[in-house]
Amino acid sequence: MSERKQRFERVVLPHLDAAYNLARWITRNDHDAQDVVQEAALRAYRFFDGLRGEAKPWLLAIVRNSCLTWLQVNRPADLAGFDDRVLEPQAPEEDGPEAQAMRAIDRRMLNDALAALPAQFREVLVLRELEDLSYKDIARVADVPIGTVMSRLARGRRLLGEFVRAVSKAANQAADR
Amino acid sequence: MTREEAKRLLHAYVDGELDPSKTLELEAHLAENPSTRAEWEGLRGMSAAIRTKAEYYTAPIGLAERLADPVPPAPEHGPRRFTLPRWLIPAAALAGVAVLAWVAATLATRPGEDERIATEVLSAHVRATLAGRSFDVASSDQHTVKPWLSARLPFSAPVSDLSAQAFELTGARLDFVGGRRVAVLAYKRRQHLIDVFVWPGESTPELRLARDGFNLEHFAKNGMNFWLVSDLSRNELGDLARLLAERSAL
């Protein structure tokens, strides 16, 4: 086996789970995520000589690009979630999520809420909370300035909080009846 | 610091990205402003909820094998599949070979076997948790647990005290996995129960899985196979696996 191939395996392939997790959260479908990761692995191998620095954000940036290419071809409507012009008018500033509501939310509800977020917020939350990436690395993966990462995280969390508040309110009303 | 500025900095604070001088300023503000503090607690709760409750999709075991096949013909969803340009096929074949070798090296050569053990370990964990019977010997003292296990098993399972790392040993029990008697060490972090299954055997490659909201970690060290299962977050379970691997190396 060539030295290059060995290096590729050692450096890149341990991040296969992270690659799949990101692709799965962006495409929201197991089958599509597998297709995308397959494509991304090919691209990563082709561009491997260009890798400088850490492999994980580098690979995830390729996975994200593969997701966008894939959506463009197969589900162009889903790309709207990456377009910030649509969402530019900021929602009125509301109070953050109540800690109690957050603790009470069950697994399925939280997953549904996260999957329902527009893609640009969903991806930064997944990269931050599930992959534990720094702002700098998220900026690299999502190809935006760090300031944009921060505003997307803030906005994404606010949207998620609104959802949780709505759900717990509905649950309380049902309980009161 | 104004309330607006404090609110703006809360996210960076929760994410551990705030510089030390701003951190001090913000903490002073939090001490005096209950409303900002409530918001901070909400954000912290949200971060914790995503980390512990959001699905972490691990790559399906079959995916690595599919990567090894450079041009998979799958007519059942033809138009949605990538087609490779001809010039890319050699590169794809190379990548395929690389991935295939990696699959052989890192995943078990029999993924079906791993799946089976993962399922058994998970069922054993859920059964024990449902029955409220996580251990037969209750002790946080490794010098009580280890001899108790050794007296009942044909091998001596390594038992580590990790209370300093906030993994509390609560006891041990025996269980039956893969047709053999195995040791199960019960640990606890916050309210999460963690079962560590241990048995001697050929070492198989490391594995990380998520099933039904549970996380599983497998590794082998010094002739012992370890399987960890818990509803604890993936990162924290990974921490425990690393600690156990370090301790068993001693």
Query: How many individual β-strands of chain A?
Result: 0
Head-to-tail CA distance between termini of chain B = 51 Å
Structural class of chain A: mainly alpha
- Which homologous superfamily in CATH is the superfamily of the largest domain in chain A? Winged helix-like DNA-binding domain superfamily/Winged helix DNA-binding domain
Radius of gyration of chain A, in Å, reads 18 Å
Strand order, sheet with most strands of chain B: 1-2-3-4-7-6-5
* Category by helix and strand content of chain B: alpha+beta
Looking at the structure, what is the overall shape of chain B?
flat
List keywords for this structure.
heterodimer, A: 177 residues, Arc Repressor Mutant, subunit A, 10 helices, B: 250 residues, alpha+beta, Phosphorylase Kinase, domain 1, 8 helices, 7 strands, flat
Characterization of the model:
The complex is a heterodimer of chains A (about 180) and B (about 250). Chain A has about 180 residues and is mainly α. Chain A has helices spanning about 5-10, 15-25, 30-45, 55-75, 85, 100-105, 105-115, 120-130, 135-140, 145-175. Chain B has helices at about 5-15, 20-30, 35-55, 60-65, 90-105, 110-130, 140-150, 235-250; strands at about 135-140, 170-175, 180-190, 190-200, 205-210, 215-220, 225-230. Chain B is flat and about 65 Å long. The N and C termini of chain B lie far apart (about 50 Å). Chains A and B meet through α1, α2, α3, α6 and α7 of A and α1, α3, α4 and α5 of B.
Topology:
The complex is a heterodimer of chains A (177) and B (250).
Chain A: H1 3-11, H2 16-27, H3 30-46, H4 55-74, H5 84-87, H6 99-104, H7 107-116, H8 119-130, H9 135-142, H10 146-176
Helix pairs in contact in A: 2-3, 2-4, 3-4, 4-9, 7-10, 8-10, 9-10
Chain B: H1 3-14, H2 20-32, H3 34-53, H4 61-67, H5 89-106, H6 111-130, E1 137-138, H7 142-150, E2 168-177, E3 180-189, E4 192-200, E5 207-211, E6 214-221, E7 224-230, H8 234-249
Antiparallel strand pairs in B: 1-2, 2-3, 3-4, 4-7, 5-6, 6-7
